[in-house]
Specification:
heterodimer, A: mainly beta, B: 113 residues, mainly beta, seven-stranded mixed sheet, four-stranded antiparallel sheet, 11 strands, 55% strand, globular
């Protein structure tokens, strides 16, 4: 029979453009959020995090925005590069337990 | 810093066999997590430990799965007996505490025939 798997959202951008990856989380009590990047054949790698008492945090080329009203998290990548191609996961943490989103596949076209 | 170390990197076994996956967390980290990743269900938390004590094993699929952490530098995830539906990539991660950033190992790709 036909197998059914997760249908990951995909985002395709041109090199040099900005990328925005979105994530909806489920638990309004979650107090810590992390974005991870997973390249093919590797484990998830930390990119940036944000606590629930903040609504924006910036890193090097990356910015995370948190909207607790609608339980929405976004990751902005400035000047996207081919090396940014990967699957990106958001994770919400509550009481020590992490719940990961399904992931978004980012493809950067040179 | 060696990061989280997992072994083996690949495991192929036959249905019914026992499988043991191993993890060495980052030195000084007090929390250790076991995850399973499949195309069907994505990344799932199986169990996590704080200071070598299992805190939440609600993600462990069934009694065939067990995990131990005999000391701060070593953990095992055992499947006995293994089944084809256990085929997945199993990740171990560690963090300073269970509310801190987790650092993932390279994973063990398990294939059960």
């Amino acid at each position: 029979g036909e197998s059914v798997g997760l249908h990951l959202p995909t985002l395709s951008v041109q090199e040099g453009d900005n990328s925005i990856i979105n994530c909806a989380y489920s638990n309004s009590a979650s107090d810590y959020f992390i974005w991870y990047k997973q390249e093919s054949g590797k484990g998830p790698q930390f990119i940036i995090d944000i606590r629930s008492n903040m609504d924006k945090r910036q890193g090097q080329r990356v910015t995370v925005l948190l909207n607790k009203t609608v339980k929405h998290l976004s990751l902005q990548i400035a000047a996207t590069q081919p090396g940014d191609s990967a699957v990106y996961f958001c994770a919400e943490i509550f009481a020590g337990k992490s719940t990961f989103g399904d992931g978004t596949t980012l493809t950067v076209k040179p | 810093d060696a990061g989280v170390i997992q072994s083996p990197r690949h495991e192929v076994t036959e249905m019914g066999q026992e499988v043991t996956l191993r993890c060495k967390p980052i030195s000084g980290h007090n929390s250790l997590f076991w995850y399973r990743q499949t195309m069907m269900r994505g990344l799932e938390l199986l169990i996590y430990f704080n200071n070598n004590v299992p805190i939440d094993d609600s993600g462990m699929p069934e009694d065939r799965f067990s995990a131990k952490m005999p000391n701060a530098s070593f953990s095992t995830l055992k499947i006995q007996p293994s089944e084809p539906r256990d085929s997945a990539v199993y990740f171990c991660a560690s963090s300073l505490s269970d509310t801190d950033t987790q650092y993932f190992g390279p994973g063990t790709r398990l294939t059960v025939l």
